[in-house]
Write a structure and sequence with these properties.
Elements (H helix, E strand, L loop, with lengths): L3 H36 L1 H18 L6 H14 L3 H36 L7 H20 L5 H5 L3 H24 L4 H27 L10 H7 L1 H31 L2 H25 L2 H11 L2 H37 L8 H16 L1 H10 L6 H21 L1 H29 L3 H27 L6 H26 L1 H17 L1
Helix pairs in contact: 1-7, 1-11, 1-12, 2-5, 2-10, 2-11, 3-4, 3-10, 3-12, 4-5, 5-8, 7-8, 10-11, 10-16, 10-17, 11-13, 11-14, 12-15, 13-14, 13-15, 13-19, 13-20, 14-17, 15-17, 16-17, 18-19, 19-20
Length: 513
């Protein structure tokens, strides 16, 4: 059984590799986005985004299987039970093959509807068809051949697979840029390398899995026997399906609603901001997401005192780091957009604030979600249904009144009611067995500290307004640092979680020295 030292060590290894790859992803992502905007145009990029969202609708059948399998792997991995691991992976393969065939059938139907969904695009209906087929192939490959990679994540060995995955993706983007800028193949060169990238990625993933787990194989027995033995996984999958459905609606329908109420061009503007916000969210996830398997192992150890201490440590540290990221986003996103692709692509400060609020809730929710997954608390299937209703209903109604801002307000309302209020209550009552009142008092206190420090930082910025870009950026950096220092000091002197987090960081640094 892995102890806390090995859990921490692997978490750090995953975080280190993910962080380095993330830095490369930022550089390539911003540069490639600029190239694609210049050579493909907002119409084509908006079309690709919308096609991706349509394909995500078709992937609804998968929702829940991945997490159900991952959480079920924690115990056999700790016990080195290779036979159970093979059985669980086999069950996953059976379910994923069924999903692959289902998506192929639905994809064929959707293709007949594409001319009606995109009656007039500058790239032509042929490109719409080819793009959809290429995006569809990527999903099919993942269901038929790439599904085993879930084991390497549950085993906290993502640091061995991620360099290969990112290497293939970066190479693909580089070849796409060459096709656009040097060979001038246009949209057809771009889509060709998109397809080749899917094939090479599948080969790379399976190569690493065979190398890392040579004993991994599918169980040769009747499917019904295995499905009956692991029927509890099917129950958890059904519950998780409903939970992930709400998350899907929140993430994937927003661009579609923007397209419906505004335009494909606004989808691209929104996508530019979400690219930046997504990169920063990824940075926070790089720091914390590797802890998901560690938390699963921690809960399996069943040391209640240690579990509670780790929960509050992660709770405070994640909220603090999420707040730093969001303050930075609010201060620097619009200036960066202006320098990157031009002032014409800038959205209003109100829109940016609504986006930042959404990102903060999503980044800070990770601790509660990870512990819920570790305890396998998926029974509140009504909650995501309510979340989906609030999100869709409010986004459509408010979007018809206030456009993009109304759509974002609707999304945020659904997050507040379910993610901020309900999910922590459900975890504390059924998993951690801790006081809900104590949790919400602590949560409100953290928000008060964040708001106070952000207000102080913003007051400082108001004292130094300048049209000089260098002076403008310098004072924003100073204001950003001011927020980091003041918020850390307040949380350190007033919360046990920040003290535990600081102690852990000092311990890690001391070991390195």
């Amino acid at each position: 059984m892995k102890n806390s030292v090995s859990r921490t060590k692997r978490t750090i290894q995953n975080a280190r590799i993910s962080f380095l790859l993330f830095l490369v992803q930022i550089l390539i992502g911003f540069y490639s986005r600029k190239i694609f905007l210049d050579y493909l145009g907002t119409e084509v990029l908006g079309l690709n985004t919308t096609l991706g969202n349509i394909l995500s609708f078709m992937n609804l059948a998968e929702l829940g299987i991945g997490i159900a399998m991952a959480t079920s792997l924690y115990k056999p991995i700790n016990n080195n039970d290779q036979e159970s691991i093979c059985e669980i992976i086999t069950v996953q393969g059976i379910l994923y093959r069924r999903i692959a065939f289902f998506i192929c059938g639905v994809g064929a139907i959707v293709m007949f509807l594409l001319p009606y969904l995109f009656p007039s695009t500058e790239c032509g209906i042929t490109y719409v068809f080819i793009s959809f087929i290429v995006f569809l192939s990527g999903s099919i490959f993942s269901y038929l051949w790439n599904y085993k990679q879930i084991l390497i994540g549950a085993d906290q060995k993502n640091f061995k697979l991620l360099p290969w995955i990112h290497g293939v993706r970066y190479s693909k983007v580089g070849l796409q840029i060459l096709c656009l800028t040097i060979f001038h193949w246009g949209i057809w060169g771009w889509i060709f390398w998109e397809f080749i990238g899917n094939i090479v990625l599948t080969i790379a993933i399976n190569f690493i899995m065979r190398k890392e787990y040579p004993w991994l194989h599918t169980i040769d027995c009747k499917k019904d026997i295995l499905l009956k033995k692991y029927h509890h996984l099917l129950t958890k999958t059904k519950q998780l399906f409903v939970h992930k459905l709400a998350y899907f609606i929140l993430e994937q329908t927003t661009p579609l609603i923007i397209y419906g109420y505004v335009s494909l061009t606004m989808v691209t503007y929104y996508g530019n901001y979400m690219l930046i916000l997504g990169y920063v969210s990824t940075l926070v996830n790089v720091i914390f997401d590797g802890m998901g398997a560690s938390i699963g192992s921690l809960v399996a150890d069943n040391n209640r005192t240690h579990i509670i201490n780790v929960f509050w440590e992660l709770f405070t540290s994640r909220i603090w780091i999420a707040s730093i990221a969001c303050i930075g986003l609010f201060y620097f996103t619009s200036p960066f957009i202006s320098l990157w692709i031009g002032h014409d692509y800038i959205l209003s400060d109100t829109t940016l604030l609504l986006l930042v609020i959404s990102v903060f809730i999503k980044m800070s929710r990770g601790v509660v979600d990870s512990f819920k997954d570790a305890y396998q608390l998926f029974g509140d299937v009504w909650a995501p249904i309510i979340e989906a209703i609030i999100n869709l209903g409010c986004s459509i109604i408010l979007g018809s009144i206030w456009g993009l801002n109304g759509i974002l307000i609707g999304s945020n309302l659904s997050l507040i009611f379910i993610v901020v209020l309900w999910k922590p209550y459900y975890l504390l009552k059924n998993g951690l067995k801790e006081s809900c009142i104590n949790y919400f008092i602590r949560y409100l206190y953290h928000i008060l500290v964040i708001a106070t420090c952000a207000y102080i930082s913003t007051l400082y910025l108001g004292l130094f307004l300048s049209d000089n870009l260098l002076i403008f950026i310098t004072h924003r950096i100073i204001g950003f640092i001011l927020y980091i220092v003041t918020s850390f000091c307040l949380l350190f002197v007033s919360t046990q979680g920040m003290k535990l987090f600081s102690k852990r960081i000092i311990s890690i640094i001391s070991q390195k020295i």
